[in-house]
Request: fold
Amino acid sequence: MSAEATNPGAHSRRRGIPRIDLRRLGRAALLGPASRHRLPDAMAHVADAHRAHHPDADLAVLRKAYVLAESSHRGQFRKSGEPYITHPLAVTLILAELGAETTTLTASLLHDTVEDTDVTLEQVGAEFGAEVRYLVDGVTKLEKVDYGAAAEPETFRKMLVATGNDVRVMSIKLADRLHNMRTLGVMRPEKQVRIAKVTRDVLIPLAERLGVQALKTELEDLVFAILHPDDYAYTRALIADNATAGDALAAISEDVRRVLREAGIAAEVLVRPRHFVSVHRSRLKRGELRGTDFGRLLVLVGEDADCYAVLGELHTCFTPVISEFKDFIAAPKFNLYQSLHTAVAGPDGAVAEVLIRTHRMHKVAEAGVVALGNPYAHSVGPPYGTQPEPAAVAGRDGAAEPQDGERADPTRPGWLSRLLEWQRSAPDPDTFWTTLRADLAQDREITVFRAEGGMLGLPAGATCVDAAYAQYGQAAHACLGARVNGRLATLSTVLSDGDTVQLLLAHDGATGPSPEWLEHARTPAARIAIEGWLAAHPDPAGPPDDAPRAPLTAPAERAGASDVVVDPPGATVRLAGCCTPEAPDPVTGFAVRGGVVTVHREACPAVARMRALGRVPVGVGWSRVPGCRVTLRAESFGRPRLLAELTDAIATAGAAIVSATVEPPSEQRVRHTYTLELPGADGLPGLMRAMREVPGVYDVSRA
Reply:
């Protein structure tokens, strides 16, 4: 994108990556192509870096793209005074150093042509194909003339939707922002701060999620210098004052090399200095820093098994700090990162952190999705020229994707699928922008397993509410509770990595979320869905699940063939809840609406009131069937109509309710106690089974 000038962050360049010479590029760009059959001088850096990763790459298309970009941007200058072509060249060099394939580099050379010149997308497509056109379109900003203040959030929405179909879009955007941040110095301070905040809140988290650590760490340092100049200056001075700190790590690295050499393990041992933000965080965490705190040891090996062999030797020959051990090979991070992390203490007590990985893991750790090359080379590919449907669950090869919250395609990880899903429910640009920042601020993911198979990827701190909406979408409105690792749990339960979750749903359409759910929702998808339901149902069907309720006495409704004999025969009978009559109590009855006869004890105060009103009693009495009396306790999650469905199930099973009590709910759980009359004891198992089948009931037992 259109970039600005000089460099506040030269300090943050990673070792081993040469700084592009803008003056040389400027001169070369002004001179134009030198020959029809070779790359222009300005492309020499790019060609060398690209061939280092792809020795057989055809550079003809890059020459063609450079010629179009240079001629289109000719006469345009950056605020630093350099020819504008130096910007797409620098962006392309960044990607070439990370190992991006030719198509990505072609699009990066052209990424500003449609936005800033007269070149059209149709021209790009005609000259370079639909793939390049799609990538260029994905990173092209929307016009402020058309979108006003919403241009920036809507541009990011467009870019993320395009990234959902081709992650190379975001790779180009990240490299573009990195070069802009490197050359931000001539901008007004307030504009520097605005751009740095967007970079911090959106681009850096995206770089982390896509695993592009090489870009993420430099972006962090550049943002740190702008937003926290005092802390940055202190950290810079601290590093300068400890210029010899690497000697301590170098000494330990020699010991490590010797140990591995004697064990016959071929390995490369490197000292990696920490970047500025990492040193700053270590200082805040540990206080005074020692020499070994200014860097880490990196051990590179050939095979996965060698990683564990190295770990065994280090833990045998050095004193390990067990609390620092993490295995990201057996359980990779959600951004493709794999490594073994450990820490060992040297003879003098100095602790050195050690990263152990293969060369392939190291490439992915540095470049993330860029290291995948062209991830779509062996598939049908995205529908270039059209925006992808974010909710689609079909893979690129036409095979159905597993709908378990995580996609098999590593270029479309679960967090991106969830982001694309909820953004469709946030049409307002301000809501989208605020929610996006909040979503990306959750910088760690967990994986939970579904009891019926499959898994869900969720941000750290997610609850059962988030799991419900991640698995069921809008159907999660009917969620009553959950079992976590086999134990009953409330919807507010915070999940941990590796938990097994079984979500319990009601089967009636009247159930919906309560406002309290919003306090437990961490994911945007859950919050947006709950807020939408609450807005559409301003008058809840019943009290919230967590609201206290008074103890209830449930009336019983029975047919004429029961323990009660009524005149006239066949009338529907209800045992009054106010006095809970049972055989052989003296009883009387009164007809109420619908032809139902309510049966009371003779001593019930309601009988006197009914007679005072002139109501005529109905003849009722107890049948001579002996029956079987039992008290059952039902444990359930609170929800509307639960009591009605339970009593209906009891009546359908042929049992009469002598008395029923519902205790006030505790943590969304409700206990029902019923005293029942059955025709015989042989009907008890079927009755208990019928009660357990009522949605929301998770246990029925004899009291």
